[in-house]
TrEMBL record, chains A, B:
Gene3D superfamilies: 3.30.70.920, Winged helix-like DNA-binding domain superfamily/Winged helix DNA-binding domain. SMART domains: HTH_ASNC (SM00344). This is Lrp/AsnC family transcriptional regulator. GO terms for cellular component: cytosol. Keywords: DNA-binding, Transcription, Transcription regulation. The keyword Cell wall biogenesis/degradation does not apply. It comes from Natrinema salsiterrestre. Pfam families: AsnC_trans_reg, HTH_24.
Amino acid sequence: MNHTDATPDLDENDLDIIRELERNDEKNLEELADELDLSKSAIHYRLNQLKESGVIRNISADVDPRALGMSMVIITEVYVSHESGYADEIGDDLADLPGVQQVFYTMGDVDFMVVSRVQNHDQMNELIDEIVALEGVNETSSRFVMRELKNGNRILETMSEGMVDRVLETE
Amino acid sequence: MNHTDATPDLDENDLDIIRELERNDEKNLEELADELDLSKSAIHYRLNQLKESGVIRNISADVDPRALGMSMVIITEVYVSHESGYADEIGDDLADLPGVQQVFYTMGDVDFMVVSRVQNHDQMNELIDEIVALEGVNETSSRFVMRELKNGNRILETMSEGMVDRVLETE
DNA sequence: AATGAAATCGACCAGCA
DNA sequence: TGCTGGTCGATTTCATT
């Protein structure tokens, strides 16, 4: 019904591969094949398709932010003056500020939610100043994060059985 | 060797490697060596250290959430009844709910910020219900994300020159 | 989707600055 | 301690069925 998203038909095997590689891509084809009860070539074939179709966008290293001193996290609500049609531009400007990790454009009274990471108090203040200084930004409100209980970029792992079923049904 | 802020001394070459692999880990050692003007063995040597020291935590696949139908994003503020010492437990409970991607424990009037991803309206309502139903949760307030302008897990790429200098100085 | 052969790659080591 | 350069075994890749 809901075909706004062009979901390339994925079956259980595809999802198994995705689940495995979202967790760790350092296994070789043979290990994967053993665990998932598929042949090496089958894995190879499916993996190629998953990459080419854009389901797997990238293979990359996950770096510990603390190793780079980026241990402070702040979440900032950004309010924009509504008559200005600058929303998109402001979003891009926010995304380009140093330390900014995520920018969401939201419905409701707030306009943007920004998650950022800095090394110390001074950088935190500087970043907030830079946000306020952006043309069209009205007001901001920041929260300091004391603890990150979860910060995952694994999608499939967080999905319920029902959610997974919905993916398989569109086959 | 534990999770303090003990920054293993990193030099420019290490940061080059990290920057490259945060972007894409699918290059082979020789390509990397060419681009970074280091020998294959030097890359190999440093890469091992980066992994062993925990600077590089993982190599994994980045999956397009839309390919799994997880196209709706919500950001939820969760308020907890303060007399309960349940804070940690609630944080873990939140992290375990289906669709929940990030959980932050924050200072200030809000207690938790939760970023989650679902497939449709029904799942959105269900998730919010599940959050409210958690023991100790007082109140929630959710925002619907209309657009993700940036959603990166690349740390080094977002760092300013000044931030990078600070890492190099601790050598 | 499986096989097996050919090409390529990463792991490793002894020696060196 | 970090690097060189080369070898060897392992792994990916691909044509064929």
